[in-house]
Amino acid sequence: MAGKVLRTVATAGLIVVAASSPLFVSRVWKGIFKEFKEGKRRERKRVYDAFTYLRKRGLIRVRYLGAQIHISLTPEGKKRAGKDDIDRLAIVPQRNWDGTWRLLLFDVPSAQRVKREALRGKLIELGFSMLQKSVWVHPYECAKEVALLKQFFGFDDHTLKVIPAPHLGGEEGKLMKYYDLTRSR
């Protein structure tokens, strides 16, 4: 439940609740959590416990301003929500391959070796194949996934980039077998 609350606050950015009306508060929670039902004490307690847990861990900030409650992520909460997004990240294979390879190139300084190794591990998990230590390839569209990786690791366009390529030369046959692809052009 805490993960769901964290993702909801991350998605909403900031939740403002009119604290003066308990009925309004329960309706807001209903909209945020589909399984939260008015009259079910257990569900209300789970939501309350999740917020308490996240607040004690310093992942969300709760501020009272007059009759309103402002709930937002702390910097640590943003990191945690981003990590959860990265953990669920996947590249979905398309039914028909478009014949374009996506070359991912990165140049991460040796001072950021931990980030570089974490990136390589995630690329393997996402199904990329290594052509060279800092050159990886994938057959399917992955711009959104790479943008999320860039944001999570704090890389810019010079550090991490994707270049579409119609051919890969001598490596292409082996990679087409590996990914079980056929050219549809």
Description:
With 185 residues, this protein is an alpha+beta fold. It folds into 2 domains: 2-85, Winged helix-like DNA-binding domain superfamily/Winged helix DNA-binding domain (Arc Repressor Mutant, subunit A), CATH 1.10.10.10; 92-179, Alpha-Beta Plaits, CATH 3.30.70. Helices cover 45% and strands 20% of the residues. The chain has 7 helices and 7 strands; from the N terminus they run H-E-H-H-E-E-H-E-H-E-E-H-E-H. The chain has helices at 2-12, 22-32, 41-56, 75-88, 113-125, 143-153, 172-179; strands spanning 14-18, 60-65, 68-73, 101-106, 129-132, 135-138, 160-165. Strand 2 (60-65) and strand 3 form a beta hairpin. Helix 1 (2-12) packs across helix 4. The relative contact order is 0.13. Residues 12-21 and 34-38 have low confidence and may be disordered.
Short summary of the structure?
The protein is of the alpha+beta class. Helices cover 45% and strands 20% of the residues.
List keywords for this structure.
single chain; 185 residues; alpha+beta; Arc Repressor Mutant, subunit A; Alpha-Beta Plaits; 2 domains; four-stranded antiparallel β-sheet; three-stranded antiparallel β-sheet; 7 helices
